[in-house]
Every structure is written in structure tokens, then in C-alpha cells.
Fold:
Amino acid sequence: MPGENLTRDEARERAALLSVDGYDVALDLRSAVGDGGGQPRTFRSVTTIRFRCNEPGASSFADLIAPSVTSVTLNGKDLDPGEVFDGSRITLDDLAAENELTIDAQCAYSRTGEGMHRFVDPEDGEVYLYTQYEPADARRVFANFEQPDLKAPYRFEAQAPEGWTVWSNGAGELADGVWRFAETKPISTYITCVTAGPYHYVTDSYERTFEDGTKLEIPLGALCRKGLAPYFDADDIFLVTKQGLDFFHDHFDYPYPFGKYDQAFVPEYNLGAMENPGLVTFREEYIFRGKVTQASYEARANVILHEMAHMWFGDLVTMVWWDDLWLKESFADFMGTFANVGATRFRDAWITFANRRKAWAYRADQLPSTHPITADIRDLQDAKLNFDGITYAKGASVLKQLVAYVGEEAFLEGARRYFKRNAYGNTRLGDLLSVLAETSGRDMTTWARSWLQTAGVNSLTPQVLLDAGGRVAELAVVQEAPESHPEERPHRVAVGLYRRTSEGALERYARVETDVEGPRTVVAELAGAEAPELVLVNDDDLTYCKIRFDETSLTTLRAHLGALTDPLARALCWSALWNLTRDALLPARDFVDLVLRFAGRESDIGVLQMLHAWANSALVHYAAPQWRATGGELLAEAALRELQAAEPGSEHQLAWARFFAAVASGETDLALLKGLLEDTETVEGLDVDQELRWAFLEPLATHGVADESALAAELARDDTASGKRHQVRCLAARPSAAVKAQAWAQVVESEALSNALVEATITGFDQPSQRELTAPYAEKYFAAIERVWQERSIQIGMDVVRGLFPGFQDRQETLDATDAWLRAHADAAPALRRLVLEARDDLARALRAQACDAAAVDA
Structure:
């Protein structure tokens, strides 16, 4: 991969030596338009850095990844770029106590979503630019000291093509052909930002008067490509933004510190969003071109609030190094849901968190690459891979547990003191723990060691003993930890007892909060209660654990899961059953059967869509191969039945329509999809908009019903950037050896595709129904991945290594081939080995689950 890997030790040494007073960055973006002359397209970047060195005469380096450097001037002396620049670093010798460094470089536009990404809209030919840096791609746009603890103020300016607008972190204005932006507060390199192009821009404002009479006015803006303007619901985005600003001002007691608040929805974005202060960037898929369910609007609101929380957790106060990444991401993930529930219309967002975000965390925490929330991040490649389910969702879950442990007000008061003491500075774990100890009166050391500094997830199982009269004699909670991570943690949990009412509803009749510690905890308060039909450990989802069931509870769920009236309790039970399936403790066909019988009664649309995804995963990954065809038919029949029974025009109808398309494979089902596209078939109330048309076309392409001409015709109907991504995915999904060979070559042997089209091609290539077609690529995968990792950017490397792993070649031979590669490549890049180890673990888990499912039939 291009660019040197900065290590933690190097960053520590440089931070001990240098302090930065400010940056002036001038970019010339006029080269973004035009034909480029057939040469690699670059832009001019001129950076002046003012910094101090506390050991005059010492040496250090600045970071820059660029095709060429025109000049380097240090303290008035011109340095030979050929001698001091090696492609990623600029050597700086004989530093003075106060220094001024100016670097004039030609930097490259990106097609991978890293650095300065350049996108050409196929709809109208317009060019759009935006930057994305985290963790260390600012050095692809301007020279800098690329580490989070060397904060500084920035002054940006840019020249752009006529008719363009340019945005950056500070407010900007155009004068004499140059966009100049207000100097920022001291911030880290990775959250500086530039967005430029003929974007559609909508404005609003937020006003707040505080108790002391001071007033705050924040200019608001929202922008997207012109082609998406007809779908841009900026009013709803501004509504959530204002609600979030009110919420965080109420709870943080620290005014938003970065002036304006723009939100840019940009194309071909690798992430969900990025918290650049004053200019947050989002993937443009959060602008909905067709009808979506409320779960999609809730998810967008959650992301808006997550990024807003970063203005305090991450931007105002920043971790020293990436091993404390959780100091921003865990808090933002927690605060996103906390604010969604507390400030917006999405009052049930904790249900989504329990069902969706925690599933991500549970998976990550059981991989061989699991790590403590405070991780050991040796270098930038480690940092890139640690934006994972542990840093985000497990960390947020642990913070939810912390709120239950210390109390909400003590938690928020700790946050307030943390901001005021560390504003515009950098912190470590101890800085946060000290204020929480102050505000809660609790010793945070033991809690932090158990929850932040150890890895792995505990399982909590109820044990119920009844007396002769049929009442609870003793109820205990058994805690287990995996052998690989044997830590038993203190858990604050609620234990709920449920029975069916005379009307058949399964409802809670007793609840106790208690502290679970050690291998077995007796819940004395529940002695004497009526015998439960269901015991739900971690009722209300206070802690982070895998819930298990006693035999009576599991029997009850098998028969009456749909009768459970509380939506959060129901979501927790579904999540627990899914974990049992993944852990090969519940046959996959049993989980599918539960979905077949009870998903139609699920009221929460987000939970329903998660069940659809889990049911499909159970079928293609965890079911015994000989049952897959039968299971697929059963799911398709149920999906069609529920689609036809759903209220016309409802979001449940839409969800079932999408699920039906995802599992359709039989001739009759495919004919129905084709008929819906051609208007020869209808389902009352179902609006087959453009996005749903592509959802129906993909299975038709996958099963050979829609050919290249049909996909070309659909692209002509939807000749947009979104349409192109859909078409590329569908083209790669066709059941042809030649198609697979072409898709493989486009991704692995060529750099012609942008990041978005690489992702679309990989998704289309790897179809579970085409295991025989893709079998020859297992060997090719292991032969290619080290070269791909070395030659491509880390983002594309991650996409290829993860996306093309032969997981659907779910045989022992594939597991053996993976192990052979790992043995033969012990010295490969640790980040590459981590990705392969994770994929291997998923494959081994699938084989165990398939054996469990097969054994259920044999039994």
C-alpha cells in the first residue's frame, strides 16, 4: 500500500518533540474539471506549518503522500525535494526552537474515498469533490503532522472552477477568485475537511438563549449532488439537527464550539458519516430515492446525532492516540441512541440498539481479533481496522451499563467536567475515569479493568428451582465466560418473570434489578414468586451479555414468542435466539421456523427487517446444505404470504416485498417479480419505485432471468450514479463463468473501478446460490490477497480481502486452505492477517452451525 505506516512509538516521540502553532493550506482545485490531458489528475497543495521544537537541532518529519513535491522550504532555506521526500515523509533536520515549513506539492485526486475524492456524476457530467481523512489520509491532501495529539488551528483557502462552491470547517467567502475560510479552533488533522463542487445547498439556522442570557446562533446548511435534490428532505434533517443541538446543550452545558454546522451528503462514501467540525460528511444513501421504512429514518437520525455528539466527544476533546478511540466512538454511539430517544420522534431507538447494534458487537467480540475497548493500537493499519463493533457498539453498550451503574446524572456531570477541563486538548482513559469517580463517588478502577481493559462477552443463564407449591424456591443467574477470555464481570441487570394471561398474552409480572457478580448470583427478591413461563435475564437491556434461557423459557418461546407483548423484551429474545443459532446451540432450521411462525406478528419495523436479514443468513450460512432448498422455499412462501396480507401501502408491506425478493429463487416466484416489474402483476398498495425495481432485478439477474440487455434498459431508465451502482452489482451477479471471470479481473487485476463500483462488483460476484461457479476462485483468492494488500489502498485492500473471501465455499477444504495460507504467511502485514483470521472464524462458525442443524435431523 502506498504510504508509510506511522507507529505509536513514532507518534509519541514526535509529540514529545514538537508543538504546532498553526497551518495555512492553499489548494488549487481547478484541475478537477476538464479532460486531464490523459495524465493522472493532480491538484496543487501549498502548506505552511508554524511549529516549535523543544530540542533545537533535533530531527523529525512531516507527513505527505503525493505523486510529487515541487519545493520544500524550512526556516527560509530551500531543501531538495528529491533528498528529503520519500513518497510519504519529509525529513526535517536541524530544527530551530521556532520553525516555519512550506511545502508545495502535487497531490492526487482519489477514486477510493481516501483523501480528496473526485466523483463524476454520470447523470449530468458534473464533478464533485470531498475529503475523507480518518485515521490518516489528510496527508494525501496537504502536508502535516498526521497524529491526533498535535492539534492546531487551520486556515484553508481554495481556488475552484467557476460556478462551484467550496466548504470547509470554518465559514467561507469568495473574493478575487479564491475561497477563504475562517481559522478553526485547535483540531486534529483527521477532522479537517474540504468539499467542493456544484452541490445543491439548503440553509437554515439554530438559535439558543442560555440561562445566563447569552445567545448562540448557529448557521445550518445541508448539501447534496444536484441529481439528488428532488429527493432531498432537508427539512427533516434540519429538524433532527435542531433537536439534537437542544438536547446536547441541555445535557452537556458547553455551547457548540465550532461556529457553523453544515452537513454534506456525498457520493461513493466509504463510511456512514464523519464528524468534521462545522462540515459533517455523510454517505448520500441517507437521501432516500424511494420509499423506505421508518427504520431508515431512525437510522439516519441516529447517525446525525452520533456525529453531533462527536463535536464534544472527539472534536473538542480528542484521544491522544488511536488506542483510546473509544473515548469518541463509544460515546458517540451511545449518545446517538440516547439523544434519539430523548429528543426526536424515534422513542423506541433503544429497541433498535438492542437488536441491531449489539448484534454487531457480539459478533466482533467473539472473533479471534477481539480486543479490549481500550485497544492496543500499534500503528495506523491497526487503527483503520479498529473502527469495529467493539469500539462502537460494545463500547456504547458498556456505557449504557455504566449509566445504570453510576446513575444518569453522575454520568452526565462527569461528561460536563470532562469537556470543561480538557477543551481543545487530548485525553486518555484516566482523564475520564477521574471525573466519573468524582461525580459518582464510585471507584472506577475495578469497573474499567473489567469492562474496558478485557475482551470477550459473558453469557448469563437463569436457574429456577420451584418448591412443592409450584412457586420459586430459588432463582439464580449463572455467569459464564469463554476459555479464551475468562473474565467474569460485574453486571447490573434486571431479571423479568413472564407468564401468559388469560387472553394468551405473554407479559411480565415481576421484575428485580440486581448486581450479578461471579459465577452464580442468587436473586433473593424473587423467592416466592409465581412460577414463570419465561425468565428474561437482562430485561430492559441494561448490560452487555449474551442472554441464555432455561429449558422452560426456551419451550415457552418456541410456542409463544409472538405473544410477548413488550417490544423491547421481544427484541431481546430474538437477539438471544440468534446468538444461540450462531453458537450452534439452536439448529438453524429451528430459528427459521420461529421466523416463519412469528415474524408476521412483529410490530417493530426495525426488528422485522433484522429478522429478515438473520433468517436469510441462517439459511445460507448455518443451515445444513441438504436443507437449504427446502428452507428457501419455506421462506419465500412465508414472505409472499405476508406480503399479500400486509396492509396496502404500509412499511411492513414494503419490508416483506424486499425480503421476498431476497429469498425468491423458484420459477413461480421469479415470474412474479418479473411481472411486478412489467406491470403484468400487481400487489395492492405496493408502489414499485425505482429502488424497489432494482431490488427485484437483482434476483432475476442472479438466476438468469434478466440478461445484460434488460439491465442496460433499466440503467437507461435510471441513468444516475445510484442506477450505475445497481447495474454493476446486477451484472456481476449473473450466473455465468465468463461474468465471474470479468468481475474478478475488474476488482483484483485492475484499478479502473472506483471504491463504490468495487463494492458493487464484489457484492454481485459472491452469490450463495452460485457456489459451484465461484469455487475456482478460492485458490485464486489466497494467491492474490498479499499482492492486493501491498499494491492497493488500505480501503480497497480491506474491501477485497473481506468481500472475496470464499465463505460460501463452506467445506473443510476451504478451512484447511485458510489455515495453510496463515501458516505460510506468518510475516504478512498484521492487519491483513487479522482480516483473514476473522473470515476463517466466520467460516468455522458456519461449519459448526451446519453440523448442529444436520444433527437435529438425524436425532
The chain has 28 helices and 28 strands. The first strand starts at residue 18 and ends at 28.
